[in-house]
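Below is how a single chain appears once it has passed through the pipeline. First comes the sequence as given, then the structure the pipeline wrote out for it. We keep one example in the README because the format questions we get most often are answered faster by looking than by reading.
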Amino acid sequence: MPDNKKINWDHYIAAIWRSNRKALKPISDVDLIDFNVLVGVEKQIESVCLNTERFLAGNPANHCLLWGARGMGKSSLIKGLLNKYHQQGLRVIEIPKDDLVNIIDITDDIRGIAKKFIVFCDDLSFEDGDNSYRALKTSLEGSLEKPPENVLIYATSNRRHFLPEKMSDNLLRTHIDGEIHESDTVEEKLSLADRFGLTISFYAVSQDTYLKMVDTYFIGVNVDRERLHKQAISFATQKGIRSGRVAKQFYQDYDYLVSPE
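Resulting structure:
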């Protein structure tokens, strides 16, 4: 494996793992986001920021799992952290979930570097028979070797426990002296999520909050707000969900919506 310590972390604030190269690729054009555009998730932002600030200050901090409704800004929150804290030494390394077998090697290479790293895995989930989560479990708590003090793992997922929970899992439960005992398979699924000390949930938003999300994209734009909101509601109804992602998609499609020929 290439020596990822060769990346100039004073110059680059983020990198992404490229499986074809078997190396980290520094990102020169980072997609940074201002927290002000993330509406409806203020409490979630506050919790993650407090944890990250403890980490940057050298105090105990937790690995973080952001889970819940799709399109609610989980990934954008990570971009917001990098935007807010990169001048304080925060760096982010993104690793696709299919490459998690390499996560231990990555954290080994950045151990001891005078920066604080968030290793970020987006849309984390595992199917039956996928054992790559075991490398993640080791990175979260270490093995015989302590995990690096300058690394935290932040992950996003639509599932609380990453793996699909099936009816067959329930059939493997046993009852002993009135207590429910999970099968080894179910227990292993639960233990992975439990290793994230900070777990933050995201839920679908109300119509009012959704419209506030829409309005953030039209600040300073001279539009008929009543008409705008009616079209935004119709757009979300067609998508089947109200979220920040849908609000952005509506904004990107708005010229077409207002002037159909």
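The chain has two domains: 4-202, 207-258.

See the next section for the split statistics.
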